[in-house]
Design brief:
The protein is an alpha+beta fold and 340 residues long. It has one domain: Jelly Rolls (Sandwich). It is built from eleven helices and 14 strands. The strands form three sheets. It has an eight-stranded mixed sheet with strand order 1-2-10-7-12-5-4-3. Helix 2 packs across helix 7 and helix 3 packs across helix 7. It binds 2-oxoglutaric acid and fe (ii) ion. 2-oxoglutaric acid binds next to strand 5, strand 7, strand 11 and strand 12. This is Clavaminate synthase-like protein. GO terms for molecular function: metal ion binding; oxidoreductase activity. It holds the Pfam family DIOX_N.
Length: 340
């Protein structure tokens, strides 16, 4: 039985009525004890929506993650409030490590750039306690190490339950292409959407499917939207702070599952008509396959997981016209869902 720590979730800003996605909730405690009904439910949501809430309040690992989530927000408020010049010292011009300023990628609106900055910590650098990690992260090593380990445990639990539900054995099990001692692009990404101008050139986080296998996402604020194939429009995802994470399947897991699982199309827009009025924070832990894992993409092309990662990041920076020409940005899902 879930101990509900909080079920009064924030209302949409300004009291406006908006379309809200109806997502199922999966229980982490039940998955950890291999409850067959919960495992079946997990498979069903991953085959039909690819997006769901995960209730973290039903096991000690989840409760610790909820507490640490708050610690990470406090860190982010302090970190992103620093002057740009200071944050740029952490810019390693990398898709996997360090700081990225606002405006590197394409935004949600034609001829606009993105409106978010990020700080990334790769799992392999955390595992190696690498000196290359940002000093501010190293100063909070205990928090980040625990947070990333718990996020990893959650995503592996999902992966193992999905392997069970799909009846996979031996090397075909999904965990076998996500071995922790192999090189991968698995990482923690902290995202900050600063307030924007009315007529600014930066807006949102453009529509996309995630590159990797499973994304564990936290945010206490509105802005995330998912494309609903039934109604052919965007719906907001209700934030459920202090108790739930939002989980989604990414392209790599879709491809590894022989396209049985559904990699979901999503984006972030300011909830208040094109202008981000408050600072928005979100935290994503991206579990990705080993770099050498072999994927068959939406066009039937065989690619290494690391190449899919790099190609997709290059596409994030391309103009809309270019993005719309191929299947990379949305993992081919627009052919299935309809054009967003
Ligand atoms: O900021 C968010 O809520 C979502 C970010 C996201 O979709 C991503 O970084 O892939
Ligand atoms: Fe995403």
């Amino acid at each position: 039985m879930a101990t509900q720590r909080n079920n009064t979730w924030p209302a949409f800003p300004g009291g406006e009525q908006v379309k809200i996605a109806s997502l199922d909730t999966v229980d982490l405690g039940r998955l950890l004890t291999k409850n067959p009904i919960e495992i079946k439910k997990l498979l069903d949501v991953c085959m039909t929506h690819g997006f769901f809430y995960l209730d973290l309040q039903t096991c000690k690992e989840g409760l610790q993650l909820i507490d640490d989530e708050q610690g990470v927000y406090r860190f982010m408020e302090e970190y992103f409030a620093k002057p740009l010049e200071t944050k740029m010292l952490d810019d390693r011009k990398s898709f996997l490590h360090g700081f990225k300023p606002v405006g590197v990628f394409t935004g949600t609106k034609e001829s606009h750039k993105d409106a978010y900055e990020t700080l990334k910590v790769a799992r392999e650098e955390m595992d190696a306690k690498s000196e290359l990690m940002p000093d501010s992260v190293k100063a909070k090593m205990e928090l980040f190490d625990r947070f990333m380990n718990l996020s990893n445990l959650v995503n592996y639990t999902l992966l193992m339950c999905l392997s069970d539900a799909l009846g996979l054995t031996g090397n075909a099990r999904l965990e076998e292409s996500h071995r922790r001692d192999q090189k991968s692009n698995t990482c923690l990404v902290m995202l900050h959407y600063p307030p924007t101008e009315t007529d600014g050139t930066n807006i949102g986080h453009n529509k996309h499917t995630d590159i990797g296998s499973i994304t564990l996402l936290f945010s206490e604020q509105w802005g995330l939207q998912v494309f609903d194939p039934e109604t052919q429009d965007w719906k907001f995802i209700q934030p459920r702070p202090r108790g739930h994470a939002t989980i989604n399947v990414g392209d790599s897991l879709r491809f590894l599952s022989g396209k049985k699982l559904y990699s979901c199309l999503h984006r972030v827009i300011p909830p208040t008509a094109d202008v981000q009025t408050e600072d928005r924070y979100s935290i994503a832990y991206f579990l990705r396959p080993e770099n050498a894992a072999v994927l068959e993409d939406a066009d039937g092309k065989v690619v290494a997981a690391s190449k899919w990662h790099d190609d997709k990041y290059v596409m994030f920076g391309a103009p809309h016209q270019e993005q719309d020409k191929g299947t990379v940005l949305t993992g081919g899902m627009e052919t299935i869902l309809g054009r967003a």
